[in-house]
Amino acid sequence: MGKHEFLTPKAIANRIKAKGLQKLRWYCQMCQKQCRDENGFKCHCMSESHQRQMQVFGQAPDRVVQGFSEEFLESFLALVRRAHRHSRVAATVVYNEYIADRHHVHMNSTRWATLTEFVKFLGREGYCKVEDTPKGWFMTYIDRDSEQAVKARLKRKRVKSDLVEEERQERMIARQIERAQRSLAKASDGDGSNNAEGESESESESGSEDDYSDSDNDRGDDREDEAKDANKATGKIAIALQKAAPGPKVNPFDEKPKVKFGFDEEEAGAQDKEKDDAAKKKGKDVKASETRRSALDELMKEEEKAKERSNRKDYWLCPGIVVKVMSKSLAEKGYYKQKGVVKKVIDKYVGEIEMLESKHVLRVDQDELETVIPQIGGLVRIVNGAYRGSNARLLSVDTEKFCAKVQVEKGLYDGKVLRAIEYEDICKIAQ
């Protein structure tokens, strides 16, 4: 019997039957064909085209199921975003609206067997906020687009504040450098004035000694002139006095007439003065070095504080570290207090964690995670603070003060020892 004509009652009845939704168990997703009854579905499964599609499916079944799952998820979320963006709605209502499209991706071709399992997946992955009520599962779409806009605005604000903070720190460091240079200049000026005073004192002492020797010479010349006048009156004595050699110039105030006594005293005084000047200069050098050292220490401390302020953030997650899950809501799944490795960081605050035992991948907020401290000698990463991002080796742990002693390895601060860094600022590196 041939096919019915287009306007025959049988053809019209067939079109009416095919127009509405049919049973899900008679739908072939690989061929995208809907059969009306069991016999038609059986005939379709024996057809050559279906056999070719099943051969393609047999070559990579996981990839095909994953493709259908992603397509189902995208189309379902698009419907929720378009029709129920800001409302709390029952999951069955959304699913009925979704399957109203005749060519939708059927759930039996995805990795979710039931609608309940799919709704739980949406809540676990953060696409929707789901609630289990006596009337069934209800869901509320989480608007990531508006959240992204808010986060972008906050990020721009943080970047601007960081730039302002950096400029303020640069100005502060410049002022500190100027202050240190002024203190060093004052110290050097003090040394120069002390040296000048010492030289003026030595010159005044040498001048007084010269005046004293000149006055002695003048007194000797006056006595010689008086002796000559007396010799003119007495001749014999004059002859004897003329033959006598002139005596040495003697200081009348000295008990023992020695010619070189004044010079010896001058040399001794000069030596004592040099010793005093050397001691004073040494003391000034020590004070200047101490002042310079204190200024440098103060500058280094200020720079350390500035670095701490600039690198101290409210987020600390980074890939490659080992963390511990502290979320009690995941205790039913067996993830509570279990360790995992951070594989990816999403929006700075959420991490994709691969559990060490089960190899499952979870998305957990950093507030529900905790850093892990390795054994002594193990490698850690500084996740917050002045030396953020540096790798270090754990030297010791202070359990009373909840801090650790680490030594930075590699990088700009290689070899620097941090004596008291908090537990929350360091985390074990995954091997």
Q: From the helix content, strand content and strand pairing, which structural class follows?
A: alpha+beta
Query: Total helix count?
Result: 9
Task: Calculate Rg over CA atoms.
Answer: 50 Å
The percent of residues in helical segments reads 40-55%
Poorly predicted tracts of residues: 208-213, 230-244, 253-261
Q: How many strand segments? A: 15
Largest sheet properties:
5 strands, antiparallel
End-to-end CA span: 73 Å
- How much of the sequence lies in strands comes to 15-25%
Strand order of the largest sheet: 9-8-7-6-10
**Large-scale geometry:** elongated
Mean pLDDT: 77
List SSEs in N-to-C order: HEEHHHEHHEEHHHEEEEEEEEEE
Draw up the topology in text:
Blueprint: H1 9-19, E1 27-28, E2 33-34, H2 38-45, H3 48-59, H4 61-83, E3 88-90, H5 91-99, H6 115-125, E4 128-133, E5 136-141, H7 144-233, H8 235-243, H9 261-311, E6 322-325, E7 339-346, E8 350-355, E9 361-365, E10 369-371, E11 379-382, E12 391-398, E13 403-409, E14 417-422, E15 426-428
Antiparallel strand pairs: 1-2, 3-5, 4-5, 6-7, 6-10, 7-8, 8-9, 11-12, 11-15, 12-13, 13-14
Helix pairs in contact: 4-5, 7-8, 7-9
Can you put this structure into words, describing what you see?
The protein is α+β, with helices and mostly antiparallel strands and 431 residues long. It has helices at residues 9-19, 38-45, 48-59, 61-83, 91-99, 115-125, 144-233, 235-243, 261-311, and strands spanning 27-28, 33-34, 88-90, 128-133, 136-141, 322-325, 339-346, 350-355, 361-365, 369-371, 379-382, 391-398, 403-409, 417-422, 426-428. It has a 5-stranded antiparallel beta sheet, with no helix packed on it. The protein has a 5-stranded antiparallel beta sheet with strand order 14-13-12-11-15, with no helix packed on it. It has a 3-stranded antiparallel beta sheet with strand order 3-5-4. Strand 13 and strand 14 form a beta hairpin. Helix 4 (61-83) packs across helix 5 and helix 7 packs antiparallel against helix 9. The longest helix is centred in the middle third of the chain and has 90 residues, at 144-233. Residues 208-213, 230-244 and 253-261 have low confidence and may be disordered.
